[in-house]
Amino acid sequence: MKKIGITGGIGCGKSLASEIIRESGYKVLDADDLTKELWQDENVVNKIGLKLRDYGYLADEFTPQGVRAVARRAFENMQIINALETVLQPLILEKMKLWLKKREEEGEKVVFVIVPLLFECGLQYLFDETVTINVDNEIRERRLQLSRPLSATGINLRFNRQWANWARSRYATHTIENNGTKEEFKETIEEFLRAKL
């Protein structure tokens, strides 16, 4: 089974790529969906709370709501990011590996996994090929301001957390540019699928 990892900065079009690939009949896993699942697990939230308390962000008695409130400030503080990643990343990796194993057992020939921090977390070893979707920062910023309630500061904090386009392209097997329209991007993804699979 060929495993293809897809990455790219925030606002680059990973979700749209996932939708297009699914519509083409391929199985796709999005690591962001795994994160959302884990946040619904009270045991995981408690583990995050304990880790945040170790960093001094929560009192001895904390609530799930309090944990989530602190976590929402993650991009403002590296310690909070580290606390979240210490708990969440191993669990996400475990779920990802289990999903890949099940797809292989089902006889899938090609599968895709969307991983926002694929290279940043050193997860390229999981995949036979990697694709980065690149968008110029000015265009990404405009798109994010239209689609999400993020300030310019919030956007820049997220940009700084991720590798630059050139760095991802240096390590990725393939680079797909997404500076045009949705229709153009859809055509590019479909062309990639036809050419590579």
Q: How would you characterize the overall build of this protein?
A:
This protein is of the alpha/beta class. It is 56% helix and 13% strand. The chain contains 9 helices and 5 strands, in the order βαβααααββαααβα. It has helices at 14-23, 31-39, 42-54, 64-71, 78-105, 137-147, 152-161, 165-171, 182-196, and strands at residues 2-8, 27-30, 110-114, 129-134, 174-177. The chain has a 5-stranded parallel sheet with strand order 2-3-1-4-5, with helices on both faces. The longest helix is centred in the middle third of the chain and has 28 residues, at 78-105. The model has no long low-confidence stretch (mean pLDDT 90).
Q: Into which percent range does the helicity of residues fall?
A: 55-70%
**Low-confidence stretches at least 5 residues in length (pLDDT < 50)?**
none
Could you give a short account of the major beta sheet?
A: 5 strands, parallel
Q: Gap between N and C termini, in Å?
A: 12 Å
Instruction: Give the oligomeric state.
Output: single chain
What is the number of E strands? 5
Number of helices: 9
Strand percent estimate: 5-15%
What value does the average pLDDT take? 90
Query: What is the C-alpha radius of gyration, as a whole number of Å?
Result: 18 Å
What order do the SSEs take from the amino end to the carboxyl end, as H and E?
EHEHHHHEEHHHEH
Strand order of the largest sheet: 2-3-1-4-5
Secondary-structure-derived class: alpha/beta
Note the overall shape. Answer: globular
